[in-house]
C-alpha cells in the first residue's frame, strides 16, 4: 500500500496513518535493542518474523474473545490495526523468576512462582521504564481502579492463552509484557490488548533443554536471534517445518 504519514516511531516498530479513520499501519523493523536501547543491532528478517508471530497470537486472542487492536496483516512487515489511546504502562506477567525480578528480589532464575505475578512499569524510556505500584498509578491518574481491574483480567487471560500455546509445542512461557489501550464507543470506554505479542516481548524457554528462544539470546549474546525466533515460529506452524534459519523468512499465508 502507499506510504502514509508517520505517526510514531519506537525502537522496534513504526506507526503510520491508516487507510480509514480509526486505523493505523504498524510496521515491524529489524532493529534489536536491549537495556533501554544501550545495546543495539539490526537483525535481518526479525521484523518479518515478529509481524507474523504477532498476527498469530492476536488472531488466537480474538478467537477466544480477548479484544485486541489487530485487524489484518497487510504484507511481510505491516499490519492494519485499530488506533487506540495507549495507557502509559507496561503490564508484565511472570510465571517463572527471570530477569529483573530475580535481580531485585534475589530469587534464583528459573524458580517457578507460586502464582502468576503481575507488575506495572511506567512507559518512559528517559526514566528506564520504572516499576510502579497500583497506588502510584491511581494517584497520578495513569489509570483508574476499574482500568487496573480490567487490565489484570486481560493480562491473566492472555497468560492462559499464551501458556497453552507454548506448552503444546514444548516451550515454557516464563514471562511477557503487553500494552493495553482504550477505545471509545461514544461515551463508553473499553480496554483492549495493543502493541505486539512476539518473542521480543516474551521470555520463552525450551521445556526439555532450557534453551532460550527469546530476546535474551540478543541481550546475553547466546547465539543467533533469528534462529531462536524461527524455531518458535516453526513449532507454532507459522513457518514450514523444514525452515532452520530466518535471515530471509518464507512465510505461510
> Which term fits the overall shape?
globular
Q: Approximately how much helix is present in the residues?
A: 25-40%
Unreliable stretches covering 5 or more consecutive residues = 243-253
Structural class: alpha+beta
Q: Oligomeric status of the shown chains? A: single chain
CATH evolutionary superfamily of the domain at 87-206: ATP-grasp fold, B domain
Strand residue content:
25-35%
Taking the sheet with the most strands, its summary is: 7 strands, antiparallel
The CATH topology annotation of the domain at 87-206 reads as D-amino Acid Aminotransferase, Chain A, domain 1
Radius of gyration: 18 Å
Mean pLDDT: 92
SSE string, helix = H, strand = E? EEEEEHEEEEHEEHHEEEHH
CATH architecture title of the domain at 87-206: 2-Layer Sandwich
CATH class of the domain at 87-206: Alpha Beta
**Strands, total number:** 14
Straight-line N-to-C gap? 18 Å
DSSP helix count?
6
What does this structure look like?
- It is a single chain.
- The chain has a domain at 87-206: D-amino Acid Aminotransferase, Chain A, domain 1 (2-Layer Sandwich).
- Helices cover 28% and strands 32% of the residues.
- The protein contains 6 helices and 14 strands.
- It has helices at residues 46-63, 100-105, 134-139, 145-168, 216-219, 225-236; strands at residues 6-9, 13-17, 23-28, 31-34, 39-42, 70-73, 78-82, 85-86, 89-96, 112-122, 131-132, 171-185, 188-194, 202-206.
- A hairpin with a 2-residue loop joins β12 and β13 (188-194).
- α1 (46-63) runs parallel beside α6.
- The radius of gyration is 18 Å and the shape is globular.
- Residues 243-253 have low confidence and may be disordered.
Amino acid at each position: 500500500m502507499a506510504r502514509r504519514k508517520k505517526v510514531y516511531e519506537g525502537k522496534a516498530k513504526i506507526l503510520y496513518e491508516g487507510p480509514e479513520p480509526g486505523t493505523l499501519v504498524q510496521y515491524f523493523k529489524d532493529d534489536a535493542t536491549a537495556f533501554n536501547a544501550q545495546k543495539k543491532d539490526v537483525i535481518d528478517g526479525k521484523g518479518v518474523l515478529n509481524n507474523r508471530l504477532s498476527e498469530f497470537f492476536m488472531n488466537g486472542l480474538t478467537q477466544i474473545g480477548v479484544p485486541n487492536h489487530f485487524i489484518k496483516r497487510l504484507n511481510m512487515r505491516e499490519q492494519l490495526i485499530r488506533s487506540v489511546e495507549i495507557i502509559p504502562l507496561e503490564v508484565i506477567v511472570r510465571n517463572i523468576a527471570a530477569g529483573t525480578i530475580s535481580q531485585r528480589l534475589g530469587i534464583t532464575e528459573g524458580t517457578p512462582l507460586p502464582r502468576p505475578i503481575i507488575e506495572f512499569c511506567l512507559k518512559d524510556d528517559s526514566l528506564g521504564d520504572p516499576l510502579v505500584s497500583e497506588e502510584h498509578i491511581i494517584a497520578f491518574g495513569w489509570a483508574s481502579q476499574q482500568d487496573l481491574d480490567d487490565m489484570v483480567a486481560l493480562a491473566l487471560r492472555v497468560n492462559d492463552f499464551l501458556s497453552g500455546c507454548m506448552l503444546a509445542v514444548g516451550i515454557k512461557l516464563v514471562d511477557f509484557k503487553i500494552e493495553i489501550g482504550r477505545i471509545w464507543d461514544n461515551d463508553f470506554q473499553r480496554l483492549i490488548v495493543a502493541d505486539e505479542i512476539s518473542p521480543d516481548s516474551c521470555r520463552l524457554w525450551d521445556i526439555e533443554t532450557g534453551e532460550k528462544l527469546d530476546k535474551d539470546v540478543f541481550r546475553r549474546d547466546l547465539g543467533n536471534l533469528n534462529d531462536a525466533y524461527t524455531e518458535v515460529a516453526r513449532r507454532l506452524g507459522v513457518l514450514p517445518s523444514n525452515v532452520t534459519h530466518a535471515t530471509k523468512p518464507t512465510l505461510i499465508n
